[in-house]
Amino acid sequence: MRLTRTGMMEVLASDYIRTARSKGLRPGPVLFKHALRNAIIPVVSLAFVLFGYMLGGAFVIEYVFAVNGVGFLAVRSIERADLPVVQAIILLLSVIYVTMTLLSDILNAYLDPRIRVK
Amino acid sequence: MNALLEVKDLYVDIPLAAGVLHAVRGVDFSVDRGQTLSLVGESGCGKSLSVLAVMNLLPKKAKWYADTITFDGQEMDKVRERQMANIRGSKMAMIFQEPMTALNPCYTIGNQLEEALLRHKPVSRNEARDRAVFLLEKVGITAAGSRLKQYPHQLSGGLRQRVMIAMGLMCDPPLIIADEPTTALDVTIQAQILALLASLQKEFDMGMILITHDLGVVARMADYVAVMYCGQVVETGRATELFENPLHPYTQGLLRCIPVPGKTKPGEHLGSIPGIVPTPIGKQKGCVFQNRCTYVFNDCTSAKVGLTRISAGREYRCLLSPEVCRQNMNESQST
């Protein structure tokens, strides 16, 4: 949220917002068409990075509160040296993480044409 | 006859922690259809802020007020932002100085061009696209149809500036304001862009305000010139008159700074105006140019220095008489 706010403020002070206003566009389109799309790009990247931390956090939370989940299972398997289960969990989480990162890149490329690769 | 745009006694103030910055202090200018007015002056003298105030595009912090601003027979300071937004783009368009950052990187130039027309005229997307292609060809962009699908970062600086110009022309405005349209470009492109602006202005019979600090550009483009210094207009007149017969010591100083081929010897120092610009924060007493002027005398530090009118449209802001000013210029040239 805070990143959106600071991003928005930075973008609103930029030259192309002034250009948009000089075309006589009303505040609505200026904000939502021209400003938001530029401001949201770093937010999208960050959200997916944070998702990675969330996976790590799940281990701690599930263990501490004894919630039955992947994290809890992983920790218990490590305690019991149950190697196949540990391997499976790590593989599963890695695949999820990599897919999410890919998704974030695709989304970013859609939002920002400058990072599209031919 | 009423001018297309007439600005009287415009002030722009920017409140800062250190005090109020008086960026523009009582500026008058007017432009007519088919005419070019050039605002000249060094960085920070209030050229850009003056026109941004007219378009009501100043940063939020800055406050502006004016005696009267009339545009197309309509008084503007009574016009609210809502109506102002209808005028911007359709009747008064602006070309900005940084084509690198003035276009939105996220949208195709076609999208950004069409948007200007769709906002003001009841046209379809296809009609807007046709207009965009027509104007891109007008500003000398080849394969205009396929360019529409390109993004700003895929274009060179010169092309982007042409896109900016085309964008300004989308609604066929009677007045176009070009804020240093050539500063970010290299010299060969500069000449092309200027020639383009001049020909488009003639073709569409537009009034133009050209902001620049390049006197060469002024000499080439302008019908009228207003020389600005420290938020004030210090001298105005027809371009030819002003160049032949500069009166204000600042204008004279500027003209002396230009190297003349054949006259300026190789290795010789180029002319300069001694001193620095006074701080624009707080009120100022006397003449704004007093601390850099060669001809300064006692009254300059205390008297209120107003514009003296010599003939219609020819004014200067100095306590010395025109004869003395002319003599000063002649003497400085002979030495």
Structural topology:
The complex is a heterodimer of chains A (118) and B (335).
Chain A: H1 2-12, H2 15-22, H3 27-64, H4 70-79, H5 83-111
Chain B: E1 5-16, E2 19-31, E3 36-40, H1 47-54, E4 63-71, E5 74-75, H2 81-87, E6 92-95, H3 109-120, H4 125-138, H5 144-147, H6 157-169, E7 175-179, H7 187-204, E8 207-212, H8 215-221, E9 224-229, E10 232-238, H9 239-244, H10 249-256, H11 299-302, E11 308-311, E12 314-316, H12 322-334
Parallel strand pairs in B: 3-8, 3-9, 6-7, 7-8
Antiparallel strand pairs in B: 1-2, 1-4, 4-5, 9-10, 10-12, 11-12
Helix pairs in contact in B: 3-4, 3-6, 4-6, 6-7
How would you characterize this protein structure?
The complex is a heterodimer of chains A (118) and B (335). Chain A is mostly helical. Chain A has one domain. Chain A has helices at residues 2-12, 15-22, 27-64, 70-79, 83-111. In chain A, helix 2 (15-22) crosses helix 3 (27-64) and helix 3 packs antiparallel against helix 5 (83-111). The radius of gyration of chain A is 21 Å and the shape is elongated. Chain A starts with a helix and ends in a 7-residue tail after the last helix. In chain B, a hairpin with a 2-residue loop joins strand 9 (224-229) and strand 10. Chain B has twelve helices and twelve strands. An eight-stranded mixed beta sheet of chain B has the order 6-7-8-3-9-10-12-11, with helices on both faces. Chain B has a four-stranded antiparallel beta sheet with strand order 2-1-4-5, with helices on one face. Chain B has 335 residues and is an alpha/beta fold. Chain B is globular. Chain B has a domain at 248-334. Chain B has helices at 47-54, 81-87, 109-120, 125-138, 144-147, 157-169, 187-204, 215-221, 239-244, 249-256, 299-302, 322-334; strands at residues 5-16, 19-31, 36-40, 63-71, 74-75, 92-95, 175-179, 207-212, 224-229, 232-238, 308-311, 314-316. Chains A and B meet through helix 2 and helix 3 of A and helix 2 and helix 3 of B.
